[in-house]
Amino acid sequence: MTRKKTEWVPSSSGGLVNLGFNIGDDMVSGLSYKTCTVKDDSWSQQGRKPEAPGLVDVPPQGKYDAALRNMVPFRLQPKCPAPHPMDDSGLFSYLTLAWLTPFMIRGLRHGLDENTIPPLSVHDASAKNAKRLHRLWEEEVSRHGIEKASVPRVMLRFQRTRILLDVLLGCCFAVMSVIGPMLIVPKILEYSQDKSGSVVQRVGFCFALFLTECLKSLSVGSCWIINQRTGVRFRTAVGTFAFEKLMQFKCLTHITSGEVISFFTNDINLLFEGVNYGPLLFLSCESLITCTVAAYYTLGPTALIAALCYLMVFPLEVLLTRLMVQVQNHTLKVSDQRIRITSEVLTFMKLVKMYAWEKPFAKIIKDLRRRERKLLEKSGLIQSLTINILLVSPTVATVVMFLIHIHLEFKLTASTAFITMAALNPLRLSVFLAPFAVKGLTNFNSAAERFKKFFLQEAPTVSVHALQDPSQALVLEEATLSWRRQTCPGIVTGALALGKQEHTSLGKIGTQPQLGALRLEDKGDRLGPELRKINLVVSKGSMVGICGSTGSGKSSLLSAILGEMHLLRGSVGVQGSLAYVPQQAWIISGSVRENILMGGQYDKARYLQVLHCCSLNRDLEILPFGDLTEIGERGLNLSGGQKQRISLARAVYSNRQLYLLDDPLSAVDAHVGRHIFEECIRKTLRGRTVLLVTHQLQYLQFCDQIILLEDGQICENGTHSELMQKKGRYAHLVQQMQAEATQDLLLDTAKPAEKLQAEGQPQATSKEESHGEDADNGSALEHQLTKKEEMEKGSLSWRVYHSYIQAAGGYVVFIPVFLLVAMSVFLTTFNFWWLSYWLQQGSGTNSSRGSNSSSADPGDILDNPQLPFYKLVYGLSALLLICVAVSFSLAFTKVTRRASTVLHNQLCSKVWCGLMSFFDTTPIGRLLNCFAGDLNELDQCLPMVAEEFLILSLLMVSVLLVISVLSVYILLMATTVITVCLIFYTKFKRAINVFKRLENYSRSPLCSHILTSLHGLSSIHVYGRVEDFISQFKRLTDAQNNYLLLFLYSTRWVALRMEFMTNLVTLAVALFVAFDISSTSYSYQIMALSMVVQLCVSEAPLHVEDVRCPPEWPQRGEITFQDYHLRYRDNTPIVLKGINLTIRGQEVVGIVGRTGSGKSSLGTALFRLAEPTAGRILIDGVDVCSLGLQDLRSQLAVIPQDPILLSGTIRFNLDPFGRHTDEQIWAVLERTFLSATISKFPEGLQAAVVENGENFSVGERQLLCIARALLCSSKIIFIDEATASIDVETDALVQRVIREAFRSCTVLIVAHRVTTILNCDRILVMSNGKVVEFDRPEVLQKQPGSLFAALLATASSSLSADS
C-alpha cells in the first residue's frame, strides 16, 4: 500500500495565500480573489500559515543563544536531547567532531542508513536560514534599491560573525606554524648537540612541538568545520529563497527549465563554495605575514624575496581564476542548451523512438557536448595550473631566495636554511588554499549575478482585481493582454526584462537555424493569440461557453483570468476562488486519490460523488489498487482521457466558486463526455460560475452565455438562440456541424461507450487506452511503479575506476600521465635533497671526513670551487619542475575531460537505447541528475580532487623514501603510523561512503520536484498549493544538505584524527616538518561516476549487421500478426494475447476498445517499444524483429494524441534534421491549414518555438504534428487521437487531408471519430488484449450482439438527446 503523506494544506474554501506580490488593497492576493489588505511589503509574506508537519518550528531565542551553548567547553547530555546531537555538543566536541563518533562507529558496523541518521539541525535547516536571508535581502534592497543590491554583500552579512572566528582561528594557526620551527625545533637541536641537558626538558620540548602541531591541525580543521556549516546554511537558504521566488510566478517567461535545473545543480554549488572557501583567504594572508616575519628574523632581508614570490603567486592565481570563470560562463550557456535538449528528449522519448530520432538527437547532444568539452578543457587547464602552483611555487620561491642570498655572498648554513624553510613551509598551505578561495569567490560572483537576474527580481504584479459587486463573477473592460511584457501607463510588471542571449546552434545541420535557449521575450512578433479590447461580464452562477477556431485565443482568455498574461490596457476583475482544468492535464507523482485531493481533507461522500460525476469508477476498477494505485511521473500509466478526468475531478473536489475548464471533454469519448457534461458540469457544478472552452458545439446550447473568439477578439457574444438568429459566424459553425452526418455531431464516439455506473448499461468499449501499462483485471501491477533508486553498499568496485581509466584512453594514456606527475614530485624531492647535499659539502674540503666528521664544521659554501655547478643544478631543477608541471597540466586536462565526455556519450547511448519500460519506471529527474549533477562532478570536481590526491599521495611517498635513507628507526615509526592511519581510514570510510551515496541519491527527488513544480505552476497557484510545494522542497533540500554536511564532517572527522596520528611522526622527524602533509583522501567524487556506469538495460540494436531491408520496403504495407503476445515488463500482465490478423496494404483500419483492451498496445508492438513474449509481426513478409530498430521505425509514421513540440524553430520541429526543402514544408503546412498562421511570423519557418510549444495553442501544436507525419512519406501510419484538440471546422478539413494524403498508405486509426471509423475499410474491436471483431463497418452493424453495433446505437441515442 502507498504510504500516505501527511501534509498541511490551505482550506479548500479558498483561504488567502500571499506570494509576495506588490499589490494594492483592492488587488488579488494569492489564489482567492477577495478584497483584502496587504500589510507587508513586496518582499515579505503576510499571514504565514503554520509550517507543514515535519518541518520543525524554530523556538524564539536570541541570535547567539545556540552558538553560546556550543561555546561551553564540555556539556553533559541533556535530559531532553535535541534531534541533532551537534546542537547538544560542547566546544571540544564541536571542534573535534566528537559528537559524530557514534555514527562513524555505527557505519563501521554497517548499521548506518537514512533511518538511523538524524535530521538536519534546526539551526541549519531551510526554514530558519531562508527567513534570515529574506530579511537580509530586504534590508539590502531598502538601502541600495533592487538594481544596486548586492548578493555578495548579503553573503558577508550572512556569515560576518563566523568570518571573525575564521580570522581568530587563522591567527592561531599562523602563530602555531612558526612557534615550532622558530622556537622549539632549535631548542631540540641544541639539546641533541648538548648531551648534558635535562631529559625532562628534552621530552618537554618534544611534546611542546607535538602540541603546537596538534593545535595547528585543530585550528585549520575548525576553520573548515565552521565554513562548511555556514556554507550549508547559505546553500539551504539560497535554494529555498530561489524556489520561493520561482513559485511566485504563475508562468515562466524569463527563465527556461534548463536554466532552472542548471542553477539548482550547478550554481547553487558555486555559491556554497564561495561561502566555504572564501574565508580561507584570511588564513592565507595571516600565514604569509607571520611566516615572512619569522623567515626575516632567521635569514635576513633576503627572506623577503621568498615572500615576494609568494605574493606574486596570488595575483597570478586571481588572474587565472578570473579567466577560468569567464570560460566557465561560456561553458554554462552550452551546458544549459545541452541539459534543456536532453530534458526534452527524455520527456518525449516515446515520440523520439517512434520516429527513430535517437541517432540524430544523440548527434545534436553530442555535438553540444563536444563544444562544451573544448570550453571545459580551457577552464580545466587553468584549474590544473592553479593546483600545480601548490607543488611548484614553494620550490621555486625557495630556489630564488637561496640563489639570490648566495649571489649576494651572505652566509648560509644548514641550520639556517632548515629553519628558514620550516618557517616558510606553512605557506604551502596558503598557496594550496588560495586558489580555492579565489576561485570560490569569483565563481560566487558569477553565480550570484545569475541568481539575482533569475530569482531576486521583484515579483510580478497581479493585474486582476477583486470585484465589489457580489452578483458578478467576472468582468473584463476593454482588456488588452499579451504574453509579452510591454510598458504601459499604470502597469508595472516588475518582472525580468532579459535581453536576448546569443546561443550558437544546437545541433546545427546544414542550414538549420540557431536554436538557443529561447524565452518568450525572444519569440518574435507573435506569442500566441493576444487578446484585444475584451469586454465581458459574467454573472455569478452562470455557465459561459467559449468557442472559436484553433488559435483564436480561447486558452489565452482563461490565462488572462488566472493573471498569467500581462495587462496592457483596461481591467480584469474576478470575484471568488478559482479552479482550473488545463487543456493538457498536470499530474503529480502519487496515487489517484492524492492527485484528486491535492492535499485537501478526505470527505468520503463528496469524493465518491466526484468519482461518479467524472466517470472514474470504471477506471478505478481496472487499476490494481483502485484510487490508491500509484500514478507514475507525468501519469505514464494513464491514458490522456484518464489524466484529463482526474484533472477535472481535482477541480470539482476543490469546491471553488469559479471554474475555468479548458476543453476538458476533448480527450474522452462522446458517451463519457455527455455523462461528464450532464452529471458534473450541469448538475454538480450547478450554482457555480463555469467558463467552458470547447470545440464540441453540441454542448453550447445548454450554456447561459456563448462567446465566439476570432484572432484574439470577441467576435460574437450572446445566448445560443440569439446567436443563431443573427446567422453570423457561430450560426454558420453550428449549421456546418449539423450538416455533417449524425456521426459528426459527436466528436468523440469512436468506440463503444463505457458503462455508466449510475445506469448499469452493458459494457462496450472506450476511447481511452492505458498506454505504458495495459491493466488486467486478473493480475495486479507492482504497487510501486516508479522504483526507488537503489543505493550500493561498501566501497566502490575497481570496475568503476577501470571504466574511468578506459574512458580516458586506457592504461596506455594513464601511465604516461602518472609518470609526469611522479616526475614532478621527484624533482621537488630532488631539489630539496640537492640543497641538503650542497650545504653538507660546505667549502668542498671535507669530502673525505672520517666517522667523527659529523660534528665538524663543513665550512662556508661560498668557498666551494664547484659553487657555480651546484647553483646551476639547483636552478635548472626548478626550471625543469615548471616545465614538467605545465606538461602534466596539459595532459591531465585532456584525458580527464575526454573521460567525462566519453562517459557522457556512453550514458547517452545507454539511455537512448533503453527499453520504454525503463523510462516508464525511472523519473526524469533521476536521469537529468546524471546528465547535469553527476556529469558536473566528473567535469569539475573529480579532475581537481584527483589531481590533488595524486600530488599529495606521491609527496608523502617521496618523504618516506627520503626518511628511509636517513634513518631506519624513523622510517619504521613513520611506516607504522601511516599503516595505522590507512587501516583507520579504510574502516571508517564505510560511514563516509554511506553519507556520500545518500547525498548523491537525494538529488534525484529534488530535481524531479523542481521539474514537476515548473510544469504545474498554474495549477499549483490555483489550488493554493504553493506553500505545500515550498514545504516539500524544504524537506527535500534539507535532506540533501544534511547528507552533504555529514559527508563533509565525516571526512573532516577522519582527517583530523589522521592528522593527530601523523603528528606523532613529528616527535621523531622534526627535520622533515617542512613536508608535513595531510593524508586525507579526495576520491569520493568518483562516486558520481558509479551513477553513470550503472544504468539501464538496452533495447534491440538500431541496426543489425548483415541484415538489410529489401529495396523500397515496405511496398504494399501489409501487416500480419501471428499468435502475437506482449507484456511491457517482467512480472507484469500479458496485454496482447494471441493476436492473429492481417491488415492488407493500403487499407484503413479503425481500432476501438475499452480502457485496457490493448488498442495502443498494438502501436507499441508495431514500433517495437516492447519486445514480444511470443509470436511475430510481419510487414510485407519481413519479420520486424529481424530488423534493426532504426530500419523499422524510420519506415513508420505516428501522429500522437498529445501534441509534442520541441524548443527550437518551426522548421526544426517539422524537419529536425534538414531532410526536406522549404517548398515541401510549405506544401504540408498548406494541406494542414497552417500556412496562413505561419506566414504571420516575420521569420517564417525560422520562427521560434518556445519550450513545450507554449507559444502555440494545443490545436495548432496538433496540426504541426500532423504536418510532421505528412513529411515522413511513410507507407504505414499510426494515428492515435490526432484531432481531439481541433475545432469542428478544422477537424473536418483534417479528416479529408488524412483520407487524401494517406490514400496509398496503410493507416491504423486508434479510437477516432465516428465518421473516420465508418469510412474505414475495416473496424478492429479489441477487448482484454484480444481481437473480438474485425470486419467491414457495415457487416459489424448488422452482426447480432456486435460491440461496434452497440456503439452506434449508443451514439444515436446520445445524438437524439443532444438535439
Task: Describe what you observe in this structure.
This is ATP binding cassette subfamily C member 11. Belongs to the ABC transporter superfamily. ABCC family. Conjugate transporter (TC 3.A.1.208) subfamily. GO terms for molecular function: ABC-type transporter activity; ATP binding; ATP hydrolysis activity; organic anion transmembrane transporter activity; purine nucleotide transmembrane transporter activity. Pfam families: ABC_membrane, ABC_tran. InterPro entries: AAA+_ATPase, ABC1_TM_dom, ABC1_TM_sf, ABC_transporter-like_ATP-bd, ABC_transporter-like_CS, ABC_transporter_C-like, P-loop_NTPase. By secondary structure, this protein is of the alpha/beta class. Among the domains are: 119-456 and 795-845 and 859-1093, ABC transporter type 1, transmembrane domain (ABC transporter transmembrane region fold, Up-down Bundle); 464-484 and 528-745, P-loop containing nucleotide triphosphate hydrolases (Rossmann fold, 3-Layer(aba) Sandwich). It contains 43 helices and 25 strands. The strands form 6 sheets. The chain has a 7-stranded mixed β-sheet with strand order 1-7-10-11-5-12-13, with helices on both faces. α40 links the parallel β22 and β23. The relative contact order is 0.10. Mean pLDDT is 77; it is low at 1-60, 487-529, 741-784, 847-855, 1070-1096 and 1359-1363.
